[in-house]
Design brief:
It is built from ten helices and 16 strands. The protein has two domains: 274 residues, 3-Layer(aba) Sandwich (Aminopeptidase), CATH 3.40.630; 109 residues, Alpha-Beta Plaits (2-Layer Sandwich), CATH 3.30.70. The protein is α/β, with parallel strands linked by helices and 393 residues long.
């Protein structure tokens, strides 16, 4: 039985891929600079006897053909980049590069896909269809490695009908996974605003056009984009996160720089929100005598999980792990460039539990103490292999 064979191999290879994860964790590389990581992935695919090609410079795409290879084409995706964070964990495989760390679990994602690839290749005479293995760069940085991989043809020749991606979940106990259909994660656009006025002596404000005052009003005014224009049942966030300008107590500066983020789960509303931000900001600043430079850096689209695919995948996960170990993923206003894939083909972005309170493994992603319970590796490689081989879509 395929499921039992996958479980057996996942258990057999668990330690091997824990060691793979240790290597990746100790050797992190930033977005679009994953040259050694890419070479390592290539070496593993060669070792497994899996053909591959390079895309978007550091991306790697492998192909495994089972029996009746044209029956279905399923893509499995992992991201490979790390973050500019200094690791604070005291572990033997601690990051060997100061200021760089796999703090978001991409080392785990890559490990799980490599493990699934080895299992699927060994069992390719026991499942039908074709599996496309996507190891993509640059998930952590605009424009998102997924967009570059798509431009380089990753969803063509052959074109998958569905794509799976996993993400570690530090709030979910090891042994569990979680799924959610429909809206799962938000889009993420960056706001860069410069408010220009006329500086001068703080004791003579009547001779100035105070950009601090204008920018302060602007921050308040922008809150109406969400509070008075968005349907309250439609999750969205607008946050100004940086206010920079001025150097001393008695000088009104010439300009103030603001930075922020705008996030949404509805693509139509997202574009309307952009228009509102531009209109409200421009009208307010100019009405107060200032000038404005406003740039919205368009980021990742929202992640939307295809309802039918996720229903099938969840059922298969329950068969693999048991119903009690499959939960509902909460909505998140965080972003993921998996959204580029899920806007084009049916997507399923699911979570892998990595928390173990007894071991003190509870830190969140993007923190210097993030780590995982490595018992999750066996589950991660097995689940990905099972979904890729068992789901028909």
């Amino acid at each position: 039985m395929l499921k039992e064979e996958i479980k057996r191999l996942a258990k057999q290879y668990a330690q091997e891929f824990i060691e793979v994860r240790h290597y990746l964790h100790a050797n992190p590389e930033l977005s679009y600079e994953e040259y050694e990581t890419s070479k390592f992935i290539q070496s593993k695919l060669k070792e497994f006897g899996i053909p591959f090609e390079i895309k978007a410079t550091t991306g790697v795409v492998g192909i495994i053909k089972g029996i009746n290879a044209d029956k279905k084409i399923i893509a499995l995706r992992a991201d490979i980049d790390a973050l500019p964070i200094t690791e604070e964990n005291d572990i033997p495989y601690k990051s060997g590069k100061p200021g760089l760390m796999h703090a978001c679990g991409h080392d785990v994602h890559t490990t799980c896909l490599l493990g699934a690839a080895k299992i699927l290749n060994e069992l390719k005479d026991k499942w039908e269809g074709t599996i496309k293995l996507i190891f993509q760069p640059g998930e952590e940085k605009n424009p998102g490695g997924a967009s570059l991989m798509i431009k380089d043809g990753v969803l063509e020749n052959p074109k998958p009908s569905a794509i799976f991606g996993l993400h570690v979940h530090p709030g979910l106990p090891t042994g569990k996974t979680s799924f959610r259909e429909g809206k799962v994660m938000a889009s993420a656009d960056e706001l860069y605003i410069t408010v220009k006025g006329k500086g001068g002596h703080a004791a003579s404000p009547h001779l100035c056009i105070d950009p601090i005052l204008i920018a302060s009003h602007l921050i308040i005014a922008l809150q109406q984009v969400v509070s008075r224009n968005n349907n309250p049942y439609n999750p969205t966030v607008l946050s100004i996160t940086s206010f920079q300008g001025g150097t001393t107590t008695n000088v009104i500066p010439n300009e103030i720089k603001l930075k922020g983020t705008f996030r949404a789960m509805d693509e139509e509303w997202r574009l309307k929100g952009h228009e509102l931000i531009r209109r409200i900001a421009t009208d307010l600043v100019e009405s107060m005598g200032g000038e404005i430079d406003l740039h919205i850096d368009i980021g990742y689209p929202s992640v939307y999980n295809n309802e039918k695919l996720n229903s099938i995948a969840r059922q298969q996960a329950e068969k693999y792990l048991g119903k009690d170990n499959v939960e509902e993923t909460e909505k998140r206003m965080g972003a993921e460039d998996f959204g580029y894939y899920s806007q084009l083909i049916a997507g399923c972005f699911y979570r892998l539990g990595v928390m173990n309170k007894e071991k003190g493994i509870t830190a969140g992603v993007h923190t210097p103490t993030f780590n995982i319970d490595e018992n999750a590796i066996e589950i991660g490689i097995g689940m990905m292999a099972w979904l890729g081989s068992s789901v028909e879509f």
